[in-house]
Structure formats: C-alpha cells, structure tokens
Amino acid sequence: MHLVKLLASLLLTAFAAAVSSSAADVDKAITHVNQLSAKLRKPSKPINPNGINKVITVASYDTDTADTGFFIKFFAPWCGHCKHLAPIWEEFAYHMADRVNVGEVDCTTDGKVCARNGIRGYPSLKWVTDLGTIDFNGRRTVEGLTAFAEGFSKAPVTVVKASEIKSVLKTKEVVVFYIYDPAAISDDHLTNFLKVAASVQTLVPIYATPDYNAAAKLFRIPESHTDQYPLLITVKDGGMDQKVYNPPLTPLSDKKQQIALRTWILDNKHPLVPALTDANSRDVLGTSESEKLVVLGLFNGFDSAKVDEIRFAAREWSSKFSDQSKKNVVFTWLDAREKGEYIKRAYGIKSLDELPKVIVVDPNEEDIYRKDLSGADFVIEKDSLVANVKLIVDGKLKGAHINGWSGAFFKKFEKVMKPVIEFISEYPFLFVGGVVVFVVLTLWLLLSEPASTPAERAPLKRAESVNKTD
Fold first, then answer.
1. For 159-162, which contacts have Cβ atoms below 8 Å and span 24 or more sequence positions?
2. What are the tens digits of pLDDT across the range 202-246?
3. Who's near 316: CB < 8 A, 6+ residues apart?
C-alpha cells in the first residue's frame, strides 16, 4: 500500500513538473516572438528622422519601401484636392517624426510608380510595403491620418496561450490564428510571417499561439493537418466557421509565397456574411488580386430569415467547396431602403417591391448573374444558392456585363489594349523609337519606288484613249 502511494506521488510530481515545464516553454516562446516583433519594427534605416514628407521617385521607390512601410500620397500638381491636402500632409509628416515614414509621388513625373499602384484618382493615399498596399479611406485631417498610420506602429501579431483563445473568439467576428511548434520553427520563418502580418495588420486581427497541441484540440483541426505545423486558420462567427490555409507555410522565404499568403488573408478577412455598408462596400465589392465573386442579398429592410439562409449557404460553401474553388466567394447583404437609386443604377432593380432578391457579382469582370439555368431568378435558399454559385465558378452559368453589351465591348477592348498600354508606360522611348522607325521605313519604301518607264506607261495611255472613244 505504501508502495502504491509512493508511485502515485511520483507520477503526480512528474505530471506537475511536465505541466510546469510546458507552461514555461510557452511563456518563453511568447516572449521570443514579441522580441522578434519589436525588432521588425526597428528597421536598419531610421524612420522619418527629420519629420519630412519625402519625395519618392521611380528610382527610389523600391528602396524606400523595402525595409519598412511608407504612407504615400499619390498626386498631380494641377489637382485642386491635392493642393488643399498639401499643407495638412506636410504637418502630418512633421508629427510622424521617428514614428512613421511619410512621402509623396508626383504622378505627372513618376507615372510608372502610380501605374504600378493602380492610381486612378488624385490624391490617393496608401500604406505601401514591398508586399502590397492598403488604401486610406478616412478623414483627410492630421488626426485622421495619424490614427491610420499609428495602427502600423503596433505589434502585428498578438501572441496568446491556448487557454486565452476562447475569450478572443467571443470578442472578434473574424480572427486569423497562426499555430506553431516553437521547437521546429526558425527565427527567419517567424520574422517572415510577422512581415506578412504587418502588411495587413489594420485590416484583420492576427493572433499566434505556440501552444499548438492544445490549440489543435480546441479548433478540432483534422489529423491530416496536425503534422503540418505551422498552420494558419481563419475563424469566424465565434468558431462556427473556420478555414485552414492549405499550401505549406514553410519556408516562407520566397516573396511570391509571402504575397500569396497575404492575398489569402485578405480574401478571408470579412465576417461570414457582413452587412454591406458605406464603410465596407468598396472593399467587399471592389476588385481584388485574386478572382472573386460576391453573392449579394438585396432586402427591403432587415430580413433575419433571409439573412440566415444566406449565412447557411456561406457555411455550406466554406465547408464543401471553398478550398477547391478557383474564385474567392464572398457572401453579403444590403438593406436597400436608403440605396434605391444605387441598386437601380448598378443592378437594374426598378422598385423595392421586387425585393428580396439575390444576385452574384464578379467585380473583376464587371459581370452580374441573376438567373439559373432555367432562366428563373436565383432563390434565397441554401442548397439552390450554393448550386448556382458552383455553376458560376465552373463556368457553366453565364452572366451579363453590368453596363450591357456596350460595357462588355469596352471591357474586352480594355483587355486587348492593356498589355499595349503597359508596354508604352514601361518602355516609352522604345515605343516612340519603334513608331519613328516604322514611319521612316514606310516613307523610304514609298519614295524609293522607281518611276515608271515610257514603255510601262504606254498601255495605260492606250486604255485611256479607248475609254474616251467609248
């Protein structure tokens, strides 16, 4: 009996020591990631040491944005709004001394940089890194600009223990979790992941946990994934929907791999079925780096039953087809009561009496889908909606351009001309030289053609005399 008690005591002591050691390892790992994060935010070059608005050119752009983020104003000198913003931007740059890099690009002299960043209007304000950009859509005041920029000066990832995950899920509609084994991950990999996280940190909350075994159990990650640490998952609706990033996360040293990971995070940053508002409409309905479809429910007021049906369809799509789909599918809904003119102009809805309806929009191609294979309007019902979205993704259901046949024509024309325009923008002197060579060669061929001889002209004269006689 004494021996049994002794063995039990030894086992409890060993278990307690193991738990204590495990907890200590987790604490050590958390501290280490926080140290790497702090190091990432202190790049080799000083950050805006003089509090100035730096002029960025084609020659300096890649160097300026390589080591750390830059808040850049893209402008044209003749633009009235740009002139109004100029003193505010200078004051903002002064206030950001030693905190955030601030600069500007003149699109009339450095158009290549503006074309590279998709600038279509002035002024455009973007947070720029070598992995991508984030648009600023807030108030153009010193306070509004400061609030946006300071979001990038914080740690890009919050490191937590598995025991803290449930409380995180209760307060966040969408969370990205990075789950890793600290004993198997190099500092280079962690730093590269932190770099990706920093490029999107104001758009979606990103958490990391080195407590990988406990986290895997909490998220019920399939065994097929548990031997593939590190893992990245998005969790929505308090855990009701989650998606695992399928490509391997290691080594993450290649820039293309980092950009692909960043794109996936951005594609999955929305709640499962967000309400479409003025604040998020540009982001939800706008074009993206990946192919995208937007399933849009249009309601005359809030309709909880119909919104739930769209939510059920979203979960069904996420669980069955999302990983294999070549298009990122976003589900959303709009209360159309205050947007009557907008939906009439954009989607051809003549009256609120036609609602509720559901349509599917392809922002990149500017196509809209309204009807199923039988020609009937889409139905707001889970199975039917998922089936029709699958047909669209597979190319078996055809839509129409939002602006009709004329819009479709100009869209195709734009596709044909885009590589030509990009070539001219990238190599203007080569293009001009090619045009000059073509013109000179054509003139030379025309002018160098030998004059006709009298013998060659004789038949023409005889033909003319015959015609006159007739």
1. 159/29, 159/30, 159/33, 159/34, 159/207, 159/208, 159/209, 159/210, 160/30, 160/207, 160/208, 160/209, 161/26, 161/30, 161/209, 161/211, 162/209, 162/211, 162/214, 162/215, 162/218
2. 999 999 999 988 998 898 887 766 667 899 999 998 888 888 888
3. 382, 383, 386
Euclidean distance between the first and final Cα of the chain, in Å? 138
How far is residue 141's CA from residue 89's CA, in Å, rounded to a whole number?
A: 8
Cα 373 to Cα 17, 81, 274, 393, 404: the distances in Å are: 65, 48, 28, 14, 20
How far is residue 21's CA from residue 19's CA, in Å, rounded to a whole number? 5
What's the pTM value of the predicted model, to 2 decimals? 0.76
Could you tell me the CA-to-CA distances from 240 to 128, 148, 315 in Å, in that order? 34, 31, 8
Rg (CA), the chain: 30
State pLDDT tens for residues 49-99.
Answer: 999 999 999 999 998 888 788 999 999 999 999 999 999 999 999 999 999
Comparing CA positions, the residue from 250, 271, 42, 268 lying closest to residue 155 is 42
Q: How many CB atoms lie within 10 A of CB 187?
A: 12
Strand partners, 357: 298
Residue-level length of the chain: 470
Q: In what order do the strands lie in the sheet with 124-129?
A: 54-55, 101-106, 70-75, 124-129, 132-135
CA angle at 204 for the pair 66 and 175, rounded to the nearest 5°: 130
Position 13 confidence tier, pLDDT thresholds 50, 70, 90: very low
- DSSP letters along 140-176, please? -SHHHHHHHHHTTSS-S-EE--GGGHHHHHHH-SEEE
Which of 347, 358, 365 lies closest to 408, judged by CA?
365
- Alpha carbons 91 and 51: distance in angstroms, whole number: 9
CB 197 within 8 A of CB 156: yes
Residue corresponding to tokens 């600038």: 119
How far apart are the C-alpha atoms of 157 and 177, rounded to whole Å? 9
H or E segment and range at residue 113? helix 111-116
3-class DSSP state of 128: strand
